[in-house]
UniProtKB/TrEMBL annotation:
GO terms for cellular component: cytosol. GO terms for molecular function: DNA binding; DNA-binding transcription factor activity. The keyword DNA-binding applies. This is Rrf2 family transcriptional regulator. Keywords: DNA-binding. It comes from the Bacteria. It holds the Pfam family Rrf2. InterPro entries: TR_Rrf2-type_CS (IPR030489), Tscrpt_reg_Rrf2 (IPR000944), WH-like_DNA-bd_sf (IPR036388), WH_DNA-bd_sf (IPR036390).
Amino acid sequence: MVQLATVDDGVLVKTDDLAKSQGIPAQFLVDILTALRTDRLVRSHRGREGGYELARPAAEISIADVLRCIDGPLASVRDIGLGDLPYSGPTAKLTDVWRALRASMRSVLEETSLADVASGSLPDHVATLAGEYLGQEQERGHG
């Protein structure tokens, strides 16, 4: 999707070209593109000159939109809704931990667009979080 965000409006990208550039099998990519088309995130055009393009401007498609299409909910716990988690007693506050995780993920994924990633200009709060994480990893000797 980010690669599609980097091409000029009206330029169609062929499946084989996308697959090669991303290093993934073409059939796997076709399955992904089918899901993205069903969710109206991409448009396909048939024919010799056909291919794929974003269905709307890259600035209007969040990373969350793409992930939800491909993987489902952003944060799930054992595929159970947060209101249905069976925590009680000393573990009851785990529900709030999962809510905080989901809120954190949303603040990054819903507020970062394909255009942001393609341009290399992430929202300030996302860049700050990434920098903090990198610093923590370097402190631990993992970076």
